[in-house]
Amino acid sequence: MAYSFRKSDKSVLAGMKRIGKAQTLLALNALGDTSLSLDEKVYAVRRRIKKMRTLIRLVRPVLPAYEEENAALREAGRRLSEARDAAVMIETFDEMTVRYSAHLSDALCAPIRERLIEQRRAISDAGLGISLLETETELRAFLVRLPSWTLEKKGAAAFEAGLKKTYAKAVKRLRQAAETGDAEDLHAWRKSAKHHWLQMRLIKKVWPEGLGPRIFALDQLTDDLGEHHDLSVLQALLESDADDAASEFLDRPVKTRLSELEASVVEAGRELFAEDPAQFARRCAAYWDVWREEGCLLRAG
After folding, report:
1. Which residues contact 57 (CB under 8 A, 6 or more apart)?
2. H or E element: which one contains 244?
3. Single pTM value for the model
4. Which stretches of the chain drop beneath a pLDDT of 50?
5. Which residues contact 174 (CB under 8 A, 6 or more apart)?
6. Which of 251, 247, 259, 267 has the alpha carbon at shortest distance from 181?
7. What is the pLDDT of residue 243?
8. CA atoms of 30 and 44, how far apart (whole Å)
9. Helix or strand or coil: residue 265?
10. What is the pLDDT of residue 301?
11. Which end of the chain is more exposed for a tag (fewer CB within 10 A), N or C?
């Protein structure tokens, strides 16, 4: 099920309801899939929730139900964040040991990995199972409310302001992150950049040739920012109980990779977010109008 508007959607609202329903059902299907582990269910459900929050953020200024729906989805995702973060730390550490195997020894790696595994074990499967059931209840309630959504504007006017707001927030956070180089600022920028990336995917069919390369570049940018965040969290965990050997591990491969990522993401971000937010949103709205007009002509013909 493509995460994007279609020409067959009768309106922005109709497309939103279709996409929102599809993402909710995919999340519920993952929760009911007995072949998935608990960690895999958490990953799949949180991924869908992020897409649903980005969907409603696109029309935030004209969606009366926005505050209620966003709060419900935010809470549903929050319940699962601790387990996902713990699992990601193990994955990140394993990737680092492969990437920098020349610098590491089993004697150093084994105790660190066991510590990360213990942190994941501290989140009981029973407690996580309850959180997943609570999330399922909230998603089913969301599915019931969804058909009653209304928008206060139609056509491109329904999303232009929301698109501008998301883009402008990404620009602001980019500037802050570039100025400070702080891990938390880079992580905040990643969240905004990811919202923008997902919104570009929502409207990608209005001009695939033009928006496709941007979507690809944003995907790479958010992946790199995600790696930076995971490494920063891992670094902090290790530094809280570091001996001389661990310090050497941190000083060389981890910090080197963090520096590489910081330089590359800021350069890429400045290129991707060089345009004025209002101008960018107007341009995308114009693409939408042409695309919808073409769809009307095809149906008429």
Report:
1. 66, 70, 162, 165, 166, 195, 199
2. helix 244-249
3. 0.86
4. 244, 297-301
5. 189, 193, 266, 269, 270, 273
6. 259
7. 57
8. 7
9. helix
10. 40
11. C
The token duo for 272 is: 């991707």
Give the C-alpha separation, 241 to 264, whole Å: 30
Q: pLDDT tens digits for 50-68? A: 999 999 999 999 999 999 9
Say how far apart CA 112 and CA 245 lie, in whole Å: 11
- Cα–Cα dist 67/80, whole Å: 21
* Cα-Cα-Cα-Cα dihedral sign, residues 161, 163, 169, 175: negative
User: Please, are residues 234 and 86 in contact by the beta-carbon 8 Å criterion?
Assistant: no
Buried b (16+ CB within 10 A) or exposed e, 209-226: eebeeebebbeebbebbb
- Tokens matching residue 75: 């809470």
**Number of C-beta neighbours around residue 14 at 10 A:** 13
Residue 81 token pair: 């964040």
Look at the block and give the residue holding tokens 């387990």.
Answer: 83
Size of the chain, expressed as the number of residues it contains:
301
Structural element, H or E, at residue 108? helix 106-121
Residue type, 180: T
What distances in angstroms separate CA 299 from CA 59, 290, 294, one per listed residue? 26, 14, 9
Tell me, letter by letter, the H, E, C secondary structure of 169-184: HHHHHHHHHHHHCCHH
The Cα 283–Cα 249 span in angstroms is: 48
What long-range pairs does 87-90 form, CB within 8 A, spacing at least 24?
Answer: 87/39, 87/42, 87/43, 87/120, 88/230, 89/116, 89/119, 89/120, 89/230, 89/233, 89/234, 89/237, 90/116, 90/117, 90/120
With contact defined as beta carbons under 8 Å apart, do 116 and 8 qualify? no
Cβ neighbours of residue 164 closer than 8 Å, sequence gap 6 or more: 277, 278, 280, 281
**DSSP character for 152?**
S
Containing 276, the helix (H) or strand (E) segment is none
The two tokens of residue 194 are: 């990811």
C-alpha closest to that of 224 among 269, 163, 274: 269
